[in-house]
Amino acid sequence: MPTTTWNRHHILSLADFTPTEYNAILQTTASFQEVLSRRTKKVPTLQGQVVANLFFEPSTRTRSSFELAAKRLSADTLNFASATSSMTKGETILDTAKTYLAMGCDIMVIRHTCAGVPNAIATEMDRLGERVSVLNAGDGQHEHPSQALLDLFTICSIIDPVNPRLELLKDKKIAIVGDILHSRVARSNIWSLTASGAELHLAAPPTLLPKLFADYVNDSGVSELNGKRKLFIHWRLEDALRDADFVMTLRLQKERMTAHLLPSLREYHQMFGITRAKLDWCKPNVKVLHPGPVNRGVEISSDLMDDPEFSLIQSQVTSGVAVRMALLYLIGSGKAV
Amino acid sequence: MPTTTWNRHHILSLADFTPTEYNAILQTTASFQEVLSRRTKKVPTLQGQVVANLFFEPSTRTRSSFELAAKRLSADTLNFASATSSMTKGETILDTAKTYLAMGCDIMVIRHTCAGVPNAIATEMDRLGERVSVLNAGDGQHEHPSQALLDLFTICSIIDPVNPRLELLKDKKIAIVGDILHSRVARSNIWSLTASGAELHLAAPPTLLPKLFADYVNDSGVSELNGKRKLFIHWRLEDALRDADFVMTLRLQKERMTAHLLPSLREYHQMFGITRAKLDWCKPNVKVLHPGPVNRGVEISSDLMDDPEFSLIQSQVTSGVAVRMALLYLIGSGKAV
Amino acid sequence: MPTTTWNRHHILSLADFTPTEYNAILQTTASFQEVLSRRTKKVPTLQGQVVANLFFEPSTRTRSSFELAAKRLSADTLNFASATSSMTKGETILDTAKTYLAMGCDIMVIRHTCAGVPNAIATEMDRLGERVSVLNAGDGQHEHPSQALLDLFTICSIIDPVNPRLELLKDKKIAIVGDILHSRVARSNIWSLTASGAELHLAAPPTLLPKLFADYVNDSGVSELNGKRKLFIHWRLEDALRDADFVMTLRLQKERMTAHLLPSLREYHQMFGITRAKLDWCKPNVKVLHPGPVNRGVEISSDLMDDPEFSLIQSQVTSGVAVRMALLYLIGSGKAV
Description:
The structure is a homotrimer. Chain A is α/β, with parallel strands linked by helices. Chain A has 2 domains: about 20-145 and about 315-335, Rossmann fold, CATH 3.40.50; about 145-315, Rossmann fold (3-Layer(aba) Sandwich). In chain A, about 40% of the residues lie in helices and about 15% in strands. In chain A, strands 7-6-5-8-9 form a 5-stranded parallel beta sheet. In chain A, strands 2-1-3-4 form a 4-stranded parallel beta sheet, sandwiched between helices. In chain A, α5 crosses α13 (about 315-335). Mean pLDDT of chain A is about 90; it is low at about 220-225. Chains in contact: A-B, A-C, B-C.
């Protein structure tokens, strides 16, 4: 592992991440990608430590990814799923967290349908003067830092597999397409990708854009929110995709339909679904990302999703384990000292 | 680990536990508390052994506590939850247990809504001449031995952290408050705490006291059930709390309300909920315990629960892992010989 | 472990298994049975490899058996149960499998209610040029290879515990009784047992026989389907049981009743349930098997099930872990090269 100075105790949001921190994660992840290419994909780093996956919102892929990352670092894991929990017995979320703290957990990976829950738990853990770290695995429509970090790693390591680093994104054009309004993935990606110096273009139907952003859109349908961070909002997909190096599509929850935010899935696909034809607007070697699970034929056409020339979707999942190993490692071995 | 002679094969009930056995558990638990304070909280004692958590009644905290205890002893664990089991396929509980026996499990940790299930399984395992141990993790309204043992350890180690032992409780006054009638925790605690020579005072509304006990209550609302074991029953909280060294509150199942055993949660809290004001009746350095999960503002006031000067609730959870390590160790390494 | 040449990458069906392959599995299983008789029942063979149990159909015993087998080979395990999965989020089964592939799983153990799903996943994994192996843990009414292999091992090791091998079954008479129509267990057993040179007799009410088979039944109620493979179909239990060395009963799903395939469980038991009286038709030292879970008093009488002189049901469960260790070992260490 590279020697990095890592001081952050919890990972809750990317809002205040520094370039140094991004680079520490990218570099550590690259080391773990190398470990994962060996025959024995396991290291003893976190032996004897306990990683508790507290998933108050059901999840299979993110939970499995964190569980596997923890096991490959030789940590013990505990899984908590709210369905079978004492949440139904009237206990508060903080009390549940304190119980796992008292049991001796070292790292809590927390997912919850409400924004702010991981922050609240981290604050309480700190108040108790304890050494437990909290890792936000998705909270409501707030943030999903590990997803954005694996997106960042996937993109950077396409550009330079040997030495992925934040600076590689300078002046790249990246489009995020789809349900920005409800996406914690987008919210985290906006922080990391604008921090990299990339030009970030969001495209969505007006009903799926945050009001804050929508208001900024000017007559030509474009807006620069911030002088330093290059963030642009579009209502027309073509404007966002023009000359893009990377296109990130977002999952569309089918319940948006019944909430009358969308006319039909078919119309959505026609206007905002990514297809080979629409990729013609982008740079020739454009790559497509999606956080998964994908609604084939809605956010992206089925054949494009499976085309390794364009799709990075499988690489994202693979990077996910390595990024989460890096996060657990940086947090957990900080504790070691 | 201290060298103790341990002969008990199953842990089903505390009814016939001897002071020697209690002290073996207290002493072994203290050793594991020390292990848990090290950086690497794991010992190889039960490597290659399999601990199966057969939870026919849902539970998160007890199951997690046993799972963590097993993993810290390097055992492999299997989790069984009845919801996804073949119980719905018409198999008997004994057949399920025999299946796990045949798979080669070494220790079965069993929770069931019906009293006596762990005993029945243990009897069947013995009949088959097998070396599997059964650990009762709560059966109906019968017993919950590991909870009572962690309560015992928590109390003893407050009095003497270096050498917690049964004798420390001699002449201490301990109150158990709340739904005694439905509490397997109380039933186990009655055995362990009266065995210690402590004076045990139970307080509950008449509808939440076992009929057997209620009949014993004399005109002044007090009863000594047994000449040797000092057990007293009270209908008035103040009588139970007067000069108490420890107050143990019990969880109140909210379904007791709908069963017309209680007028309202608010009235219950006013009469039997533990608050700072009511602690004035106790000794000045009184400590409060609760098996969790707590209904804040019902069994205990929210601020008191969080006050480390009085509340031992977090210590109980921490002791829980160490006590369960001790139980698995004493049972499992007995097997080793 | 014996040195065997093993080339099969997936285990999906027994249809094309060779005697050499059967014997490799029997021999490897015998070695693991020996490991399981030691104090430390664990070997480091698959350390660092990941076995994912993808159970799209709920199961406790088969999943636990595979999980334990994997852990005893020191593999890391991931459990996936469809209830909490993103299947409900619109992802296809192949996409789910590809996600676990991308996470770096080495072996996928797959159960699904639809026949052919493990094959489809294996084909997709091969198409992606990947090194992941697929193990069919039961697919619809198609096959359940590991169950048939544990049945084979159980039978062979009764005849020669030291050197169980396929040839031991030559000229033995084996009866399979019950719901052949819906049984993936029977379908796998038909392949393995006829491959052994045993005479295989199927007995079931006409409504629970595959149409293909039923048509072959001649006037005397007997049919030889295949010149080389000795397979006979009977409508009368007595004809199947006469002089049998082994009787395998199949689980009867109670929902067959409501589908009007059976008059009543009681009548079924009277006609096809195995009892001591009916065993008089068999060879004196006949043994009875059942894949479990058993409906006591339906497929088999309760006392017979528990009689170790006749019942091999517990041995089957024990063999199950060793057979699954053998399968994971043969597949997994093939990968090692």
